[in-house]
Amino acid sequence: MPSAPPRWKAYAYSLPTLLLPGLSHWFLGRRRRAVAFFCIVAATFWVGLLLHGALFPFHAPNWLYRLGAVAEVGLGAPYALGRIIGLGRLDMRDAADLMFGYGNTFLVSAGLMNMLLMMDAFDIAVGRKE
User: Fold this and answer.
1) CA 16 → CA 52, 57, 94, 121, distances in Å?
2) H-type helices in 7-129, by residue range?
3) Which candidate among 10, 24, 89, 126 keeps its CA 20 to 30 Å from the CA of 17?
4) Angle 100-126/63-72 helices, nearest 10 degrees?
């Protein structure tokens, strides 16, 4: 069994997923997994936006929306870019939309999945998982 890289390298390997979902797995040589993970997280993100979900800000009026922002920040660059260009803007009139809750569920799930991908990449980098 090959020796695991130093712990700081494992942390460095897990961070690229914040730029693009699956990028850490790509750098670790898991190309097919990386493409599959990117497609899954990207599809979940876009379905959430198409269903009128909101990219919650941290200064949202409701504590539950702020908690959603913590989960969505796990998307990294897609979340930041979406907030900058105005995708998924939180509008209280949308809260009455039937699909608002479903869209939010997809967006929060995408953020949480991306966080799990970071942990998976860390485990691969330290040698806990193949």
Assistant:
1) 28, 23, 33, 10
2) 7-14, 23-27, 31-50, 63-72, 77-85, 100-126
3) 89
4) 40
Q: How far is CA 17 from CA 1, 22, 97, in A?
A: 26, 6, 32
User: Is the four-CA dihedral 66, 71, 72, 75 of positive or negative sign?
Assistant: positive
pTM of the model: 0.87
Other C-beta atoms lying within 10 Å of the C-beta of residue 46? 15
CA–CA gap between residue 110 and residue 82 (Å, rounded): 13
Neighbours of 27 (CB within 10 A): 18
pLDDT digits (tens, 9 = 90+) for 23-81: 999 999 999 999 999 999 999 999 999 998 889 888 888 898 899 999 999 999 999 99
